[in-house]
């Protein structure tokens, strides 16, 4: 009986340790399995300060990850996978803590290149686990990690490891561009929340869009929108903007100003006289989020 209990406990410990990381025993064969590529291959690393992430990433896209009141800063690299995630920001994912990481399952898969798939991680890595698919922040146990495969590195946190190691439990983590990153992009970006679904949009460089951006940045804008003709949602802004209406063919994702004071969000197409305000960056899931009835759209600007 004692022997059986010891085996059972050992099995539980292994399951707890693996959490989001998977070993290389799956059916799929990747480049990582063929060559045993590991996380430290070609990585720029530092070993002088164990309190900080091992990987050094000098250039990339700066992000903030909100775990309740705690903000974990990070940087995403220029890989195909990381840049696909950038296009979805701001993005919320439900993440839970495990022995060596925080992880959460993405609602849809991200693209990746086989040669970037590897085994293991470095402490502080932000990885995408291709077989789940999981978004993971790996903060511990890099020395034991090379038995776990299906990892694609997409970045690294840029704060002390203790800041995330001290967190526990589960969080709905908002991932967004850092404020200075948005300033560097020199484009007016807004977030749109429709129910529990979040989208980002890039505004036009015109007077109406700039006025709208200032409203959103200073106060936030909430608009109750109704369906019209099966291709758009429309609602009153409550004030007028500097319209410059032109005959325009709107397509899914377009944000238009109608009659100076109506905001129109398209999930279909229509040709009419509008002032173009902007466009949703990634329309995946937009039509589903808008649904068939009335919706409330909340426009905000990300702040770190």
Q: What order do the strands of the largest sheet run in, or round the barrel if closed?
A: 2-3-10-7-8-5-4-11
Mean pLDDT across all amino acids? 87
Number of helices: 7
- Beta-strand content estimate: 35-45%
Q: What's the story with the biggest beta sheet?
A: 8 strands, antiparallel, barrel
What's the CATH C level of the largest domain? Answer: Mainly Beta
Shape annotation:
elongated
Supply Rg.
22 Å
Poorly predicted ranges (pLDDT <50, ≥5 residues)?
Answer: 1-18, 24-34
Q: CATH topology of the largest domain, anyone? A: Cyclophilin
Give the helix level as a range of percent. 10-25%
CATH architecture of the largest domain: Beta Barrel
User: Element order, helices and strands?
Assistant: HEHEEHEEEEEEEHEHEEHEEEEEEHE
How far is the first residue's CA from the last residue's CA? 55 Å
Helix/strand class: alpha+beta
Number of individual domains: 2
Q: How many β-strand stretches? A: 20
Give the helix/strand layout:
Blueprint (H helix, E strand, L loop, with lengths): L1 H17 L3 E2 L7 H5 L25 E7 L2 E7 L3 H7 L4 E7 L3 E5 L11 E2 L6 E5 L4 E5 L9 E2 L1 E7 L4 H4 L4 E8 L1 H7 L3 E6 L2 E7 L3 H13 L1 E8 L3 E5 L9 E5 L3 E5 L3 E5 L3 E11 L5 H5 L4 E6 L4
